[in-house]
Design a protein that fits this description.
Bound molecules: inosinic acid, magnesium ion
Strand content: 25-35%
Shape: globular
Number of strands: 9
Largest sheet: 6 strands, mixed
Structural class: alpha/beta
Number of helices: 4
Helix content: 10-25%
Distance between the termini: 25 Å
Oligomer: single chain
Length: about 180
């Protein structure tokens, strides 16, 4: 594989190849297409991490949908969450009476998603569900209800497919762990 040949030295182990990612995204989209059949959906992508997943997923949606984006700050370049979350950029849509689907790259402690879920619920949508491509089950501190999950990953720092290491390695087409 070409992607292995020029592997960045910071990468430790590839967890999911581009092919495995595509396959899982397709399965998630199929599920969403079934669940929202005949309904209208507002898909909210969380920047920057979710941009690749959001794009791949939405290309496969067959239900009527619009997209919007939100940027949140949780812990910048650091790798330890302290639980404080802020809004860097809000959505421009009114979500009142809408079926909202939050699309996220990874849920680690769950603080970011817990904050976001409470915020969006306070705006009176018809429904809000979470679609996260990855979850670090072992480091969860908040119990967040993930309706659509791609994969559970081990408690290592993950890069690629939108996920960064201090803003780098974000656009790798595969998902990998980095060396400690
Ligand atoms: P949480 O609030 O601890 O659940 O953190 C969620 C956010 O932290 C995600 O949206 C990611 O942007 C970022 N994050 C958590 N773990 C990783 C990782 O392993 N690699 C890259 N980003 C991560
Ligand atoms: Mg994120």
């Amino acid at each position: 594989m070409d992607q292995i040949k020029n592997l960045d030295p910071r990468i430790d182990r590839i967890l999911y190849s581009e092919e495995q990612i595509n396959e899982r995204v397709k399965e998630l989209a199929d599920q969403i297409n079934q669940d929202y059949f005949g309904k209208k959906l507002l898909v909210i992508g969380i920047l920057k991490g979710a941009f690749m997943f959001m794009s791949d997923l939405c290309k496969r949606l067959e239900v009527n949908h619009r997209v919007d984006f939100m940027a949140l700050s949780s812990y910048g370049d650091k790798s330890v969450s302290n639980g404080s979350v802020g809004i860097v950029m809000d959505i421009r849509s009114d979500i009142n009476d809408k079926n909202v689907l939050i699309v996220e790259d990874i849920i680690d402690t769950g603080y970011t998603m817990d904050f976001l879920l409470n915020l969006l619920k306070s705006r009176n949508p018809t429904s809000v569900e979470i679609c996260s491509f990855l979850r670090k089950k072992e480091s969860l501190k908040k119990d967040v209800p993930i309706k659509y999950l791609g994969f559970d990953v081990p408690n290592y720092w993950i890069v690629g497919y939108g996920l960064d290491l201090a803003e780098e390695l974000r656009t790798l087409p595969f998902i990998a762990t980095v060396k400690k």
